[in-house]
Amino acid sequence: MKILVTVGTTRFDSLIKYLDELVLPSDMAFTFQIADGAYKPVNHPFFSFSEKIDQYYQSSDVIICHAGAGTIYKLLELRKRIIIVPNTERTDNHQLDIAAFMGNNGYALTVIDFDELFNALQQIKGIDLLPFEKHDFDKTGEILRFSVSGN
């Protein structure tokens, strides 16, 4: 199983270090996207950023990601199996909210405690996640009508 771990644009060294040091079965192969992280994995390949991130997404069976909205929605549109780990090292905790929403609604597995990650990797193979349906949001016409009518 090919597993991509992505942290987006903000470092998440504790997650990368934990997974890099995790003893895995031979059928699990990690690749890490570490942003500007200080921790450099020693047991698995890694990169900081890539213009070809979509290729990494497509070739991965499972993606472990931070709870960044842009990353999550992109992966859901691609119908990828995702495990969301909110980055609580950030100064704000908005990632907890989106992670809870996605996990509670069956779109992804959500893990708060790193010690649950191995079980989540075992579980994600056989779980039926709900497909996420994107709804276009375009209020341009409504805004123009409002502006022209003066209401």
TrEMBL record:
Which molecular-function annotations from GO does this UniProt entry contain?
A: hexosyltransferase activity
Location in the cell? Endoplasmic reticulum
Q: Name one Pfam family in it.
A: Glyco_tran_28_C
Give every Glycosyl transferase family 28 C-terminal domain span.
3-113
- Where is it predominantly found? endoplasmic reticulum
Biological processes, Gene Ontology terms: dolichol-linked oligosaccharide biosynthetic process
Q: Which InterPro entries match?
A: Alg13-like (IPR039042), Cps14G-like (IPR048097), Glyco_trans_28_C (IPR007235)
**What does UniProt give as the signal peptide span?**
none
Q: What's in the keyword line of the UniProt record?
A: Endoplasmic reticulum, Glycosyltransferase, Transferase
User: SUPFAM superfamilies, per this entry?
Assistant: UDP-Glycosyltransferase/glycogen phosphorylase (SSF53756)
What family name appears in the similarity comment? Answer: Belongs to the glycosyltransferase 28 family.
What is the protein's name according to its record?
A: Glycosyltransferase family 28 C-terminal domain-containing protein
What species is this protein from? Cyclobacterium lianum
